[in-house]
Amino acid sequence: MLKHYLLALLLSAVAFASHAEEANAASDDNTAYIVDNLYTFMHSGSSKNYRIIGSVDAGTKLTQLSGEENGFVKVVDDKEREGWVEAKFVSKTAGIHQQYRTLSEEMASMQEQLRQAQIELPQLQEQNQTLTDQNTLLSEQITKLKSTLNTERTQKQQAGAKEKRQLLTYGGAIAFIGLFLGIILTIVLSRRKRYDGWA
């Protein structure tokens, strides 16, 4: 359990550092924030003489619509209100409050992912064991099939060789019988001619 807390703490520290760098280096040109530890008033025009529309809390993300004018900039806040706030209270980088909120959300998400991983780990281990057993069984079946195939191939080769030997034996026997009959017929016919000549 202690390892999990240390892991979560390490991840949150890394995420905080990387998020701070991203916020400083990659903030959009039109994105701005109200600086931390204060709130400021939003006016309807570019000076304090204009009507106050409302207040904007510290760390609020803004969309900046104009450059500085009389020490004020035109913005749209997170409540879709359009107005002017003092430029000295606007920063291009997210404050600690905004970063903390983002990191808290990221940490909660990572904790949920870690919890899901802890739930899924035994199932994955069981599936891994099942797949390992199936792989072992398939390997044994493949070995048996290879052995059977080699045996059948050997038997087929032996049967082919035996058939060739039988054909050669039969062919030799037939040739011998034919030769023997030829000799006998030749002898019989020659004797008959000889007897016919005497007559």
Report what the structure shows.
- About 3% of the residues have low confidence.
- The termini are far apart.
- Helix 1 crosses helix 2.
- This protein is 64% helix and 15% strand.
- It has a five-stranded antiparallel β-sheet, with no helix packed on it. A two-stranded antiparallel sheet has the order 2-3.
- The protein has 199 residues and is of the alpha+beta class.
Features:
alpha+beta, 2 helices, two-stranded antiparallel sheet, 7 strands, 64% helix, 199 residues
Helix content: 55-70%
Secondary structure: number of strands:
7
Number of separate helices? 2
Mean pLDDT: 80
Q: What would a concise description of this structure say?
A:
By secondary structure, the protein is of the alpha+beta class. 64% of the residues lie in helices and 15% in strands.
Strand and helix layout:
Blueprint (H helix, E strand, L loop, with lengths): L1 H24 L5 E4 L5 E4 L8 E5 L4 E4 L7 E5 L5 E5 L3 E2 L4 H103 L1
Antiparallel strand pairs: 1-4, 1-7, 2-3, 4-5, 5-6
Helix pairs in contact: 1-2
